[in-house]
Amino acid sequence: MKIKKILANSLSLFSLTACQTIQHQTEPNTPQLIADESTKWYLSETGKFLVQGILGFSYDSGFVYEQSVDIWAEIYFTKNKQQRIGFETVDEDCFAYQNHSDDALSIYFNGIKVQMKHQCIDKNIALTFPKTDEGAQYLMAQFKDESKDVLLKEKDITVYFSTKNFNFMSKQAYESIGGI
């Protein structure tokens, strides 16, 4: 499944949900806060370690429009307890958990193209994650650097993910499974 379709599904659902949006002029040192779920990593009520993505648009005039979108970066573990990052999205083509994953298109993260896979993990919910160990390690390194956001870029669509609080939540995630 292409990320563009995933984002299109998320954006169409956006109009039906009460996601918070902001509009502002860009100025140096201006905080760009949308909502708690998108400003830093957190532990959800369902026990997931995640952060919500922000779809950003900027115009030549400097005007910026941002909105939260139904795509979350999430910490998950492989069967052998390797910590990974995946992207949970709404996917109407998912009817239940599937034990296999399909190749998805490659996606740019902070300017580097990463091969991805796509798997249905529940009804209407999918997880898109790096196909290779090298891609998984690269993505983890990007989130561990809390000095900058992680940018997912697919053609003309850019989704920003906060890295704030990632390292703390990463440690908490290991604690939640009893350690390494």
Automatic annotation (TrEMBL):
Keywords for this protein: Signal
Superkingdom, taxonomy of origin: Bacteria
Signal peptide limits: 1-20
Keyword Signal set for record: yes
Name assigned to this protein: Lipoprotein
Species for this entry: Vibrio parahaemolyticus
